[in-house]
Amino acid sequence: MGIVSFIILVLTITSFIILINKYEKKQLSEYGIIETVRVKEINYNIKKNPYALFEYQNKKFKVSFSSDSLK
Fold this sequence. Notes:
- By secondary structure, this protein is α+β, with helices and mostly antiparallel strands.
- The protein has one helix at about 1-30; strands at about 40-45, 50-55, 60-65.
- The protein starts with a helix and ends in a 7-residue tail after the last strand.
């Protein structure tokens, strides 16, 4: 009985993941906005932590990164 339950659990999880991925792609294609993002510059603050300046649709944003993510 345990093997049948395990197989049903795996099939349920797999079908859930597949359906959510299809739903996400459908929602992005219908309602999503695709934008071009440019990295303007990567700088370091006083504590030597890296941050990047992004620009898209004439708006600028600053994002801080851990030191390992920019290597």
